Amino acid sequence: MSARRRTRTAGAAICAAAFSLAGVVVFPAQAAAQPEPQPEVEAQTPELLHNITYRARVDGVSRGATITYKAEGDQIQFANPTMVPGRVFEVMTVLPESGIANMRVSIEWPYSANLHCEILIDDALAAQADDFIAPRVLPQRDDPDYGALTCEAPVGGQSAAVPPDQPVEPVPPA
User: Fold this and answer.
1) In this structure, which topology does domain 49-154 adopt according to CATH?
2) Tens of pLDDT along 57-66?
3) Reported pTM
């Protein structure tokens, strides 16, 4: 074999190696291993939401009415409406079935008034409270809840048909 032919053969071998290396870079080899099975995710059903209506009324002459209530997403909302006799504060929100609807109505010292609050869950009365706040000469420093009324009700509670402390009587066989 001549020297020239050996050079061509060596050159051809170098070109072939370069092309095969380029093919590896452009088209990488795929792994033949099986992928690991992913753990199954249980389908989570969204929690049932209920319509909540909060109502508050302050019958009497007072200033500084503050209404605090629980809203969607575990948020606590505040409202400072101008409450005059006969005016009703009403707000609507939604809460999950596992939640607790609660509301607090308060007035500032030294005023006195009748406080009233209601909680309706899906348009059914779930909680109601009334209280008279008597006038005081001095503020009640040892009772932070003086001048306030709180209503609370479980959103997805038991049916009111059977009280929870009384056992259910079995139905006799026919």
Assistant:
1) Immunoglobulin-like (2.60.40)
2) 998 877 788 9
3) 0.62
